[in-house]
Design brief:
This protein has about 500 residues and is an alpha/beta fold. It has 16 helices and 23 strands. The protein has a domain of about 180 residues: FAD/NAD(P)-binding domain. Strands 8-7-18-19-20-17-21 form a 7-stranded mixed β-sheet.
Length: about 500
Amino acid sequence: MPAQPTRRQFIKDIAAGTAVLSFLPGVTVARWRSRMKPAGSPKNIVVLGAGLAGLSAAYELEKAGHNVTIIEARKKAGGRVSTLRGFSDGLYAEAGALSFPSDHEFTWGYANDFRLPLRSSFKLGFDAMANLRGKSFRVHFDGTADIPFDLTPAERSAGVYRMPFVYMSRFMREVGNPRKAGWPPDNLRDLDLVSCRRFLGDRGASDGAIDIIEASQLGLLGFGLDSISALDAVLTEAITSNAPFYEIGDGNDQLPEAFRDRFNGAFKKKSVVQRIDQDQNSVTVTFTRKGQLQTMTADRVVCALPFPVLKNIPVTPPFSAQKQRAINEMKLTPVTRTYLQFSSRPWEQANLDGTGITDLPIQTVYSPTLSQAGPRGILTSYSAGQRALDLGGMSESDRQRLVLRRMGDVFSGLDSRFESSTDVVWQDDPFTQGAYTYFQPGQLTGLLPAAQMNEGRIHFAGEHTSAWHGWMNGALESGNRVADEINQAEAMESLTLLS
């Protein structure tokens, strides 16, 4: 998921052995950018969607010599990687993806290839605040806190940020390499059949520990711990356990803009796909652009549209039952973010970085301006699931008042410094209908492989087709996987024609 600014990213003594956790049984995972070479004669490829998945697929296919056209519904590239500007003093905030660790090698690699400035997304020594069960307490930089709940000795020793590892670290270490014989062990496969809450309860987690874990990044997946697969929870913790996290200087939208600047093919913006038709030899995409219905025929299509959007697009012939099930059943997490600008930063004056861990309607609070200069600052409410639906359903003025009031339950001195607000309601965006994928019990091993498989000449990319779902790394990985898949398919087709 777009990175919650979890403070575990600041802790450098996380348990080792999680580097291979991004692999799943039956899930195709691309090698780190394979430096594709031209395969056969150049082909005409149409890419649907100019998020990072579509952009990276287009970039790699073009480098391999193919002719690529991108069809994008918005005015600009980026999709759910979008930076909000227009705040005072040149401040900005991310509407979507926030940050990433250095072992997310697709994100890190492209950012370095494009010579984008990177900086740490944290400051050493700052604390956070928690407001859970109506009780407010300070969380020190290392995660230690005087937690006012009944906890087991192991839970209390772990502290706030390492609480999930009390119950998940063994499974994180045991995931192993799916390329080895006998993988996966039965106990890991069974994790996908139960919810995260059931998993924690079965292992003796206290109610207090479950509440703390619910207030962490896992609570931002789907509709909370009851809604997500325990295996999905283990993977999410594993692929985000490495410190430190980074962000792109001047905004994460610099990454899609760098792809766009290097793309030489046609970019058809404000073009909305209406239908897709394919036969044995080609694929035809029908779309509206400037009020006119247009068509484009290609040798292959990369479909990087979110499944809730694709579900409403007629496709002929219909997709297989397995693919259609994945399209119908995989869901995106509702997310509402509200950004409040203040004339000064009283939280930093109190040696706090703006992180709030809560069970309030505002859910998670963070400051996108922690690494930006100037007297003014921004605090963001990041809510998901039902809280996001509730906040998103309010009027803008009512939402602003509620968020400001509830932020006051976490940080003091805000009211007199409040200046303005804006928000992003991802579930209301017609081109995404949500923020990022989550896997319900049984779906990770059951639906992710189906989400990845091609249907004839239509190939599928997007964070929803990657083990790193919800992350920039997942979108980029899927784009590389599809580019390699198409290039290899065209190579085989060329060999067949020559034989």
